[in-house]
Amino acid sequence: MGMENSAMREAPTAAQQRYQVSDSVTHNRSLPHERFGLERVYERLGRPRFVFKLWDDFSIGTDEEAVATITFKNRAVLYQMLLSGEVAFGDGYSAGSIEIDGNLVDMIVEKNISQHSHSGAESLFERMFSHRFRLPNTLGRAQRNIHHHYDVGNDFYRLWLDHELQYTCAYFPDPDMTLEAAQQAKMDHVCRKLQLQPGDQVIEAGCGWGGLALHMAKYYGVTVTAYNISHEQVRFASDRARAEGFEDRVRYVEDDYRNIKGTFDVFVSVGMLEHVGKENYRALGNVIDTCLAEEGRVLIHSIGRNVARPMSTWIDRRIFPGAYPPTLREMMDILEPSRFSVLDVENLRLHYARTVEHWLQRFEDANLEVTEMFDEKFVRAWRLYLSGSIATFLTGGLQLFQVVFTRERNNQVPWSREHLY
Fold first, then answer.
1. What pLDDT score does 115 carry?
2. 131, 155, 173: which is the final residue of a domain?
3. Is position 116 within any domain?
4. What is the CA radius of gyration of the chain?
5. 133 falls in which pLDDT band (50, 70, 90)?
6. Angle ∠(226,227,228) on CA atoms, nearest 5
7. Which of 68, 159, 112 is nearest to 361 (CA)?
8. Most exposed residue of 27, 152, 186, 267, measured as fewest CB within 10 angstroms of its CB?
9. Does 186 lie in the same domain as 281?
10. Are residues 122 and 146 in the same domain?
């Protein structure tokens, strides 16, 4: 009789299958409101092709063509996700409270695509704190923000950047180029855009580890004064220039761009604008206007967006404090007050995705060395940061703009783009 009734029992409905819990789980079961909360997370992300699981194996989503399985290992991280999804996800993954079975880049690509048109993706608290209460990027705050990211130690960056320690987008005329070749190509691409001539006086704002300044002096016969507020980077760059015999042609200054003095033929900034803060764009424009010669040329290379909005809240809090990727329209606040004239605009979005793919692979290849330097939380956080950067460039959430401009009265400008290629 019992067997007969079992055989005649109706098949579970789709809803019952969706909320299925393993019969073997008897301890620490999730509660109905927690399961409802997981459903809310799933909905807020635009119902991506994921399986979401709780600590007791309760799951939602479908296994068919699932890009990843995401497991919340405790109640606390689920509640945090409901309050502040982006930050909680980043912190939870870093701490090991969230596990992902699947390729991390593919997972974030899927999330970005699903979430793109989903209006409920951010919690109210995230919208409030990321859009309204961003602090102005004063000189003191800028220094603290740069130290947070760049002064973790040169040995760490040596593990996964190219030989020149270029921590900015490379340029891939051939997408199969090595990272080293693509970074060399990027520096030459910048130099050609600036039409560098032997004897030019060049100012570089935000010089990183000094590779571009040294490259310009070595191969284009210019003299460079390079500014940077990272003590670690300035010391490294100065030591290298001295060792290679270029200390008379390249001078590295540990100071902020706001304190640049003198007159120069060329002003170049690669990867600094993201850290300036849009409230300071006009001030940056004034600095350029004050120091640029009448026939001077300017290139600004920056991560950007097509639509104005802040950097990821988690990135802002944990990886790059104070970073802001501008739109092209916002970048015009640098140019318009001083009546500069745009000569060239290029978007290297896919080049940056490819660059970070190289970085991530090298980071993973150096996992043993990285784990000897930092704890597992740091390693997982940087894995998420690099993976998320690749995914966001691939799905168009971030762009990479190179903008070349000069004074509006300067007629010594190229008649074509032939010199670039």
1. 82
2. 131
3. yes
4. 25
5. very low
6. 125
7. 159
8. 27
9. yes
10. no
> Do the Cβ atoms of 48 and 116 come closer than 8 Å?
no
Give pLDDT, residue 64.
82
Q: Side by side, which strands form the sheet with 98-101?
A: 59-61, 50-53, 68-72, 98-101
Record the tokens describing residue 79, joined without a space. Answer: 């509640």
Round the average pLDDT of the chain to a whole number and report it.
Answer: 89
* Range of weakest confidence among 107-116, 141-150, 364-373, 389-398: 141-150
| CA nearest neighbour of 67 among 121, 111, 18 | 111
Residue 4 included in any domain: no
* Angle (nearest 5°) at CA 370 between 255 and 169: 50
What's at 149, amino acid-wise? H
Q: Are 149 and 118 in the same domain? A: no
Report the pLDDT value the prediction gives residue 1, as an integer from 0 to 100: 43
What does the pLDDT read at residue 27?
57
In a domain, 12, yes or no: no
User: Cα(310)–Cα(130) distance, rounded to whole angstroms?
Assistant: 7
Give me the number of domains the chain comprises.
2
Please report the pLDDT score of residue 343 as a whole number.
97
Query: Residue 415's domain spans which residues?
Result: 139-420
CATH number at residue 207: 3.40.50.150
Inside any domain, residue 293: yes
In the listed set 131, 153, 182, which residue is the last one of a domain according to the structure? Answer: 131
- Distance between CA 240 and CA 247 in Å, rounded? 9
DSSP string, 39-64: HHHHHHTTS-SEEEE-TTS-EEE-ST
**Are residues 326 and 374 both part of a single domain?**
yes
160 Cβ neighbours under 8 A, 6+ residues apart: 359, 362, 363, 365, 366
The pLDDT value given to residue 148: 52
